[in-house]
Design a protein that fits this description.
Distance between the termini of chain A: 93 Å
Distance between the termini of chain B: 75 Å
Radius of gyration of chain A: 42 Å
Strand content of chain A: 25-35%
Number of helices of chain A: 19
Oligomer: heterodimer
Number of strands of chain B: 10
Radius of gyration of chain B: 41 Å
Largest interface: A-B, 108 and 97 residues
C-alpha cells in the first residue's frame, strides 16, 4: 500500500514530521517498507529569470535567452513557444542530470550560438506529461531551489511516498483514511471529517438492478446510479498527481475516480458505460458454468459454477468484485456512466480470484473485507466527484438487497491487558483508544466498527489497546522457572541418539549435508520410491517432484556434483527423515553416509587406497555403538537392490530387525547417478535400535582376573562362501566360560588350499578365572574349538 | 687380591663391546671365574683367614659386578647414540591423511537453540513433515479462504484418483507441532519444535525447504512481557552479546493475538552485518500470545490457560550469527562450503562452555 504524505494529510490534521509518522506506522503494525523522496532527483534545479529573449539568427523557432541565475546571467538557447522575456523559469545548469530525458546538461553550441544550460518543462522533470512549453512560475526568487518552491507552493508534486506492508487482517489500512485513523488514535494528529452531502437524483435511474435470491449471500447489497451528460477526459492534475505518485497510471477521469476511492477509502467501485448495458438492466447472479467474458485486461475468462457475475439482458458484463468487462467499460466517449458500489463476500471473491488467477486491486480488497456500511456513502462521494469535474446530471440511486449487518460487540475487560500483555493501562485510556479507532462503547461492551472485520473476540480488543499503546514500550518480565534449581534434561532418548549419531559421523570424518526432502522421480525410483504416494502435486521443478525414500540418492547426487567440481574423494553423511508414503507419519529417521573415491589423496606413505566395504563397516559399527546398539548382531545379505548383491551386509537383531546396512552401492545405481566409483555407503535406522533398560547410572562391578590369559591360533579350510562370523560364533561357543574373544587374523582364498576353498585363521583368547591353565586344559579347549568349527562349517583344521 | 681387582677393572674399562664385557664377566665372576675359584679356596682356610678373605672376596665380586653393569650401560648409551646419529626423518613431510568431518550449521544452530531453551525449561517436540491441511492451517486459525493460505506458497501432496480428502501439505511452518503437542500433553507446556519446513519459492533469499524453530509456553499467567523477556534472553545468549536490544512491533499472525514481529539491533559496517550494535534493526522473528482458537484446536481451554508462541528461521539466525551469505548454499552439499561453514564434531554447544568457539 502506497500513499503520499499530502494524501495522508487530506485525512489527518497533523504537524508530525515524516520520521515521526513512519516510526509510528511501523510500531502500530503498519510496517513501513520504504519512503521515496521524490524531490531528490530535482535537488539541483534552481529558479531563473528570463531578462531578454531574441530570435536565434539562424533558426526560426529558437530563442536566445539571457537568464539570470544564481551564477549570474547565462545565455540559454530555448525552443519552447512560451520562452520569452519576463518569466520565472526552472533552470538546469551544465552538469545537472535531467531525469525526463535521461541526459546530463552540458555546454553546447546550437546553430553556432553557445548555450549554458536548459529551461525545463514539467515532463522533463517527470512532474507530468506536460511538454507544450517550459515551466513558468508565478512566484519565486532567482537562485531558489525548485524543490523548495514546490514544497511551499505545490507539495503534492514532490512530497514523500510512503509504502507500507499490510497484514491480511487490516483491510481498513488499504485505504488512506484507515491509516490516518490509526495515527490519530496514536496521538499523531486529528482525523478530518471529510463527509459529503448526498446528491439528490433528478430522474429515475434508467438502469434497473436485481440480485438473484440464491446470490444474496455472495452479494448482499448493490448500489448504483446513472450520471448522464458527463464529459470524460483526463483527470484534474491533483488526481493524476496522486495516482501517479503511488504508481498508478491515470486512464480517464471516470476510471481514475474508481481508483481514487480504492486507495482513499479501501472502497473499490466500478463504472459502466450506461449506454452499452443491454436492456438497461443488470442482474447479479451465480454462474451456471461455462459463461465467458473479456475482462478489462483484454483477456478472456470462463466461469465455473457459483462464481458471482453481473450480467445485462444479453450476457455477462462483469466479474463481481474481481474485474469489469472490456465491452461495457468507460471510454473517453462515454457520456452516460453507471456507477456501482456493492459488497461482495470475501470468501467467494477469494476463491473466484484464485481460480481465475486475477490479481486486481478490487479482488485484493474485497477478499480482505471492505466496510459494508460505507456502501451508500461511497456512491454519494463518487457522484459528487464526478459531477464536480465531469459535469452531468445524477439519477436517483437504485438499490438491490440491503447492507449486511455484521454488528457485534465484545466485553472490554480492562484487566486483560495486564494479564495477557503485561502492560498497565488505565481503563479510561483503553476506552479512549478504542473510541479513537471507531469502537462504540456501551457500558463495558465495545461495538466493533464496520470496517474492522478482523476483530472477532475479546483478545482483539486487547490487541488494539496494546498496539496503539506501543509494544515497543513493553517491559520484559522473567519467565518463572518450571522447577526450582538445576534444570532437568529435556531431550528424549531418541533425540539424544540422533545427536550422538551425528557427532559420531563427523568424528569419523564425514561431512554433514542437509539435502532437500524432495528429489527427482528417477532417482527416487532407484531407491524404492518415486511412486504416486510420495508425489508432490505442485513441485517447483522436475528435480524436486517426489519425497525422498532414502537419504542415499541425494548424497550420491551431491557426490557427483562435487566430483564435477574436482573433488573425487568424499565422505558425506546426512541425518534426516525419509518418506515411505504421503500420509502424516509415513516417515522415519535415517542416518546415511557414503565414502567415494580414495581414503585420501596420494601420499608419501602410500597409505591412500580405494575406499572399501570394510571402511563403512567399521564406521557403521562405530555409529551403532555410539547410539547404544548391542554388540552381538547378525549379518546377512538380504539388503535392497541398490546394494551390490554380494558386497553388502545387513546388520540385524533377528531376521526382521534390521539396524543398519553397509556395502558397495550397486554399479548400475552409480552409473545412473553419474557417480564415479568406487562408492560405499551405509544406512542406519536409529529407531530400530532397542532402547536400553534404564537401571540407573551404576555400572556392574568390573571383574578382572589376575590369572594369565592364553591365546592360541587355529587355521581352518572351509568353502569360500562360508561367513567368517560363523567360525567366530562357533569358536566362541566352544567354552563360554573360558573363551572371551575370537579374532579373525588371516584370510587366504584358493591357491594351495584348493579351488572354491579358503583358509581362515583365528586367534582364540582364553581367560581363566579360577586357576592357571595347564597344557591339558588348553588342549581340551582347543579340541572343542576345532570340533565346533568343523561341525558348523564342514571345514577342516588346516594341517 | 688387589692384583685381581686391578686386572679386571682395567679390562672392564677398556672393553670395546658387550661381547668382550661378557667374556670378562665369565672370566672374573662367572661360575668358573677367577673370583669363584678363590671363593672355593675359602673352605680350606682357617676360620681366622676365612674371616678376613670372605668379605674381601665378596666386596671384590660386588665391585666387579657394578663395574660391569656401569660399563654395560655406558656401552649401551654409546651404541644408542651411535644409532641415533644415523637416524633422521624429514618431519616436514605430510602425514597420512585423516579426514576431518563436520557438522552442518543447521544442526549446530539447532543444538545451540536447544541448549538455551532447555535451560529455560523448554523440551523438544517433533512432528511429521507431511501433515494434514487441518493441522497446518485450520487448527492454526487459518481457514480455507484466508489470504495467508494463498500467500504461503504451500506444497501439496498429489491425491490419488477418487480420494476426495483435501490434499495433505508439506508443512509450511513448524506450528502444527504446537497443536499435536497440545493434543498429546495438554497444559501446562513448554516446548520448542525445530525442523524443516517447505514453501514453493526459490530465489536469492528463498529455498523450497528451510528450517524453523517454534516455541510455545502455556500456563495460567504467562503474558507477552514474559515472551519479551524470554526472547531477549535468547538473543543475548545466542548471539553472545550482552544487552542486545530487541524491538517488538505490532503485527498480525492468524495464530497469535496480540502479535508482534521482533527485530534485533544491528549495524552494517563495510558491507558486514554486525549483530548487537548500532541503530539498525533486523527482523528475525514472529511471535504473540496464542490465539484462543488455536488453544481450542489443541484441546486446551482458553478460559483457563494462556501462553505465547514464536517462530524463527534456524537457517536465518545461522546466517546472521556466522556470517553465511547465501541460503541456497545450505542445501547444495558443496564440500568447500561444508568444510568452511561446518563445525567440528567435538564443538558440541553448551551453556557452561559457551555456544561457539
Amino acid at each position: 500500500m502506497k500513499f503520499t504524505l499530502s494524501w495522508l494529510k487530506d485525512h489527518l490534521d497533523t504537524t508530525a514530521s515524516i520520521d515521526e509518522i513512519t516510526y509510528a506506522l511501523t510500531d502500530l503494525g503498519l510496517e513501513v517498507e520504504g519512503v521515496e523522496d521524490r524531490g531528490a532527483k530535482l535537488a539541483e534545479f534552481t529558479l531563473g529569470y528570463v531578462k531578454s529573449a531574441e530570435k536565434h539568427p539562424d533558426a526560426d523557432r529558437l530563442q536566445v535567452c539571457q537568464v539570470e541565475t544564481d551564477e549570474g546571467v547565462q545565455q540559454i538557447i530555448c525552443g519552447a513557444p512560451n520562452a520569452r522575456e519576463g518569466i520565472t523559469v526552472v533552470v538546469a545548469k551544465p552538469g545537472v542530470y535531467v531525469p525526463g530525458i535521461d541526459t546530463t546538461i552540458g555546454v553546447g553550441k546550437i546553430r553556432g550560438i553557445e548555450s549554458f544550460g536548459m529551461m525545463a518543462s514539467e515532463r522533463e522533470l517527470e512532474l507530468s506529461e506536460e511538454h507544450d512549453g517550459i515551466i513558468e512560475l508565478p512566484s519565486g526568487e532567482v537562485g531558489d531551489r525548485f524543490i523548495d518552491w514546490l514544497a511551499k507552493n505545490d507539495p503534492a508534486k514532490v512530497d514523500p511516498v510512503i509504502e507500507i506492508a499490510i497484514t491480511p487482517n487490516r483491510p481498513d489500512a488499504l485505504g488512506v483514511r484507515g491509516i490516518a485513523r490509526d495515527l490519530a488514535a496514536r496521538g499523531l494528529g486529528k482525523l478530518k471529517p471529510r463527509d459529503t452531502a448526498a446528491v439528490e437524483g433528478t430522474f429515475p435511474c434508467p438502469v434497473t438492478v436485481s440480485i438473484d435470491n440464491d446470490t444474496l449471500e455472495q452479494c448482499p447489497v448493490f448500489y448504483g446510479r446513472v450520471i448522464r451528460g458527463v464529459k470524460n477526459g483526463p483527470s484534474p492534475v491533483w488526481l493524476q498527481d496522486a495516482l501517479r505518485a503511488i504508481g498508478l497510471r491515470p486512464i480517464s477521469f471516470l476510471v481514475d475516480v474508481t481508483n481514487f476511492f480504492t486507495y482513499d477509502r479501501n472502497r473499490p467501485l466500478h463504472v459502466f458505460d450506461a449506454d452499452k448495458i443491454a436492456g438497461h438492466t443488470l442482474r447479479i447472479h451465480r454462474a451456471k458454468g461455462g459463461e465467458n467474458l473479456v475482462g478489462l485486461d483484454d483477456k478472456e475468462y470462463t466461469f465455473t459454477e457459483g462464481m458471482t457475475l453481473i450480467s445485462d439482458a444479453e450476457k455477462v458484463e462483469s466479474i463481481a468484485g474481481v474485474m469489469g468487462g472490456a465491452e461495457t467499460g468507460c471510454t473517453m466517449d462515454t457520456t452516460s456512466v453507471f456507477v456501482e458500489a456493492a459488497y461482495f463476500d470475501p470468501v467467494r471473491t477469494a476463491y473466484t480470484g484464485r481460480a481465475l488467477k486475477i490479481n486486481s486491486d478490487a479482488r485484493y480488497r474485497f477478499e480482505r473485507g471492505i466496510d459494508p456500511e460505507w456502501t451508500p456513502y461511497a456512491i454519494e462521494h463518487a457522484t459528487r466527484m464526478i459531477l464536480d469535474h465531469a459535469g452531468g446530471e445524477a439519477s436517483e440511486v437504485v438499490v438491490a438487497g440491503k447492507v449486511p449487518d455484521f454488528s457485534r460487540a465484545y466485553k472490554l475487560d480492562a484487566a486483560r491487558v495486564q494479564s495477557l500483555v503485561g502492560m498497565t493501562i488505565s481503563e479510561a485510556d483503553q476506552r479512549k483508544t478504542l473510541t479513537a479507532l471507531g469502537f462504540r462503547l456501551e457500558g463495558n461492551m465495545a461495538h466493533v466498527p464496520s470496517w474492522r472485520p478482523d476483530v472477532q473476540g475479546e483478545a482483539d480488543l486487547v490487541e488494539e489497546v496494546a498496539r496503539i499503546a506501543s509494544l515497543t514500550k513493553l517491559e520484559g518480565r522473567p519467565l518463572p522457572r518450571l522447577t526450582e534449581g538445576v534444570p532437568k534434561p529435556v531431550l528424549s532418548p531418541m533425540q539424544r541418539r540422533e545427536a550422538a549419531a551425528r557427532r559420531a559421523c563427523a568424528a569419523l570424518g564425514y561431512n554433514e549435508c542437509v539435502s532437500y526432502s524432495f528429489i527427482d522421480q528417477p532417482s527416487a525410483a532407484l531407491f524404492g520410491g518415486g511412486t504416486d504416494a510420495t508425489r508432490l502435486e505442485n513441485p517447483i521443478s522436475n528435480d524436486m517432484s517426489h519425497m525422498r525414500p532414502a537419504l542415499l540418492p541425494a548424497l550420491l547426487q551431491a557426490a557427483a556434483r562435487n566430483q564435477a567440481r574436482g573433488f573425487p574423494d568424499l565422505a558425506l553423511f546426512e541425518v534426516g527423515p525419509v518418506f515411505t508414503g504421503g500420509e502424516p507419519g509415513e516417515q522415519h529417521l535415517q542416518i546415511s553416509g557414503i565414502l567415494v573415491g580414495r581414503t585420501g589423496p596420494k601420499d608419501v606413505h602410500a597409505a591412500s587406497r580405494s575406499v572399501d566395504v570394510f571402511d563403512v563397516k567399521a564406521d557403521v559399527e562405530a555409529i551403532l555403538s555410539a547410539i547404544g546398539a548391542p554388540e552381538k548382531v547378525q549379518i546377512n545379505r538380504n539388503g535392497a537392490e541398490w546394494w551390490h548383491p554380494g558386497r553388502h551386509g545387513q546388520i540385524c537383531l533377528g531376521p526382521k530387525k534390521v539396524l543398519g546396512v553397509f556395502g558397495e552401492i550397486h554399479p548400475r545405481v552409480l552409473a545412473a547417478l553419474n557417480v564415479k566409483g568406487p562408492a560405499v555407503g551405509f544406512t542406519i535406522w536409529p529407531a530400530e535400535v532397542p532402547l536400553p533398560r534404564k537401571v540407573g547410572a551404576t555400572r556392574p562391578a568390573l571383574k578382572v582376573s589376575s590369572l594369565q590369559a592364553v591365546e592360541r591360533d587355529f587355521a581352518f579350510v572351509v568353502d569360500a562362501d562360508v561367513d567368517a562370523l560363523i567360525l567366530v560364533n562357533a569358536a566362541m561357543g566352544a567354552d563360554k566360560a573360558l573363551i572371551n574373544d575370537v579374532r579373525v587374523f588371516d584370510e587366504f582364498i584358493g591357491g594351495t588350499v584348493g579351488e572354491g576353498k579358503k583358509s581362515l585363521a583365528l586367534t582364540v583368547r582364553m581367560q581363566p578365572n579360577e586357576h592357571t591353565l595347564k597344557d591339558a586344559d588348553i588342549e581340551a579347549v582347543g579340541a572343542k574349538v576345532i570340533e565346533k568349527v568343523t561341525k558348523a562349517t564342514g571345514g577342516v583344521l588346516r594341517g | 687380591m688387589d692384583d685381581l681387582k686391578a686386572k679386571y677393572l682395567g679390562q672392564i674399562a677398556s672393553a670395546g663391546d658387550e661381547c668382550a664385557l661378557e667374556d670378562i664377566r665369565l672370566a672374573a665372576v662367572g661360575k668358573k671365574g677367577e673370583v669363584a675359584l678363590k671363593m672355593r679356596e675359602l673352605g680350606k682356610m682357617t676360620p681366622e683367614e676365612r674371616q678376613a678373605a670372605g668379605p674381601a672376596l665378596n666386596a671384590l665380586k660386588d665391585e666387579i659386578n657394578s663395574a660391569l653393569a656401569a660399563k654395560k650401560s655406558a656401552l649401551g648409551d654409546a651404541a644408542l647414540d651411535e644409532r641415533l646419529r644415523s637416524e633422521w626423518l624429514d618431519v616436514t613431510l605430510p602425514t597420512r591423511a585423516i579426514r576431518q568431518g563436520t557438522i552442518h550449521p543447521v544442526s549446530q544452530v539447532t543444538e545451540e537453540v536447544t541448549a538455551i531453551f532447555a535451560e529455560m525449561g523448554f523440551s523438544v517436540a517433533e512432528g511429521p513433515r507431511i501433515d494434514t491441511d487441518w493441522y497446518n492451517f485450520d487448527a492454526l486459525n487459518i481457514p480455507g479462504h484466508h489470504p495467508a493460505r494463498a500467500e504461503m506458497d504451500t506444497f501439496y501432496m498429489a491425491r490419488a484418483e477418487g480420494d476426495d480428502r483435501p490434499p495433505h501439505v508439506l508443512r509450511t511452518h513448524t506450528s502444527p507441532v504446537q497443536i499435536r503437542t497440545m493434543e498429546a500433553q495438554g497444559a501446562p507446556l513448554r516446548i520448542i519444535c525445530p525442523g524443516g519446513v517447505y514453501r514453493a519459492d526459490y530465489d536469492q533469499t528463498h529455498t523450497p525447504m528451510f528450517h524453523q524453530v517454534e516455541g510455545l509456553a502455556i500456563d495460567k499467567d504467562i503474558s507477552m512481557a514474559n515472551l519479551k523477556w524470554t526472547l531477549e534472553e535468547f538473543f543475548a545468549a545466542f548471539f553472545e552479546v550482552d544487552g542486545i536490544k530487541t524491538r517488538f512491533r505490532a503485527s498480525h499472525f492468524p495464530f497469535t493475538e496480540p502479535s508482534a514481529e521482533v527485530d534485533i539491533q544491528c549495524s552494517w559496517v563495510d558491507g558486514q552485518l554486525r549483530i548487537g550494535e548500532g541503530d539498525g534493526w533486523m527482523e528475525v522473528l514472529g511471535s504473540g500470545m496464542v490465539h484462543p482458537n488455536v488453544l481450542r484446536s489443541g484441546g486446551v481451554d482458553p478460559d483457563k490457560w494462556q501462553g505465547f508462541a514464536f517462530g524463527m528461521g534456524i537457517d536465518r539466525i545461522a546466517m546472521l550469527k556466522y556470517g553465511i551469505p547465501d541460503l541456497r548454499a545450505f542445501f547444495d552439499s558443496d564440500l568447500r562450503w561444508l568444510r568452511h561453514y561446518g563445525f567440528a564434531s567435538l564443538d558440541q554447544p553448551n551453556l557452561h562452555g559457551g555456544l561457539s568457539r
